[in-house]
Specification:
Length: about 120
């Protein structure tokens, strides 16, 4: 891989950091093995890791709703929706939060930050 253009090496790091489970655990060792500059590959890997989060946050439910009546994926998508709704209701009930209150958005922000920090470990 030493013959690859430098931009392509950084793109590899960027895209590997987007892959679930692998994420930064895979992108940083790959960048080191490619001999890249830590001051460049580290922010690139972090950006690549963070980029899918808002996309998933905004569109995951829409994709699940779309796919719940499809032949091959319907059961799994319905299961995901049901599990998410039950978990959300349980979380709201234990926190004593109504959807109409402003605390609902604080809870969402807290959960998002907790997820991001949890991935860092």
């Amino acid at each position: 891989m030493a013959s690859l253009p430098i931009v392509l090496k950084y793109l590899i790091v960027f895209f590997v950091s987007m892959v679930p489970i692998v994420e930064l655990r895979g992108a940083i060792p790959i960048a080191e093995s490619l001999g890249l500059n830590i001051f460049l590959y580290y922010p690139i890997a972090i950006l690549g890791n963070m980029l899918p989060v808002p996309i998933i946050y905004w569109f995951a439910r829409k994709v699940l709703e779309w796919g719940k009546d499809k032949k091959f994926i319907g059961k799994f998508f319905t299961w995901c929706l049901t599990k998410g709704e039950k978990g959300g209701e349980k979380l709201k009930a234990s926190a004593g939060i109504e959807e109409s209150s402003g605390h609902y958005y604080y809870l969402l922000e807290f959960l998002y930050l907790e997820q991001e920090l949890g991935q860092a470990h």
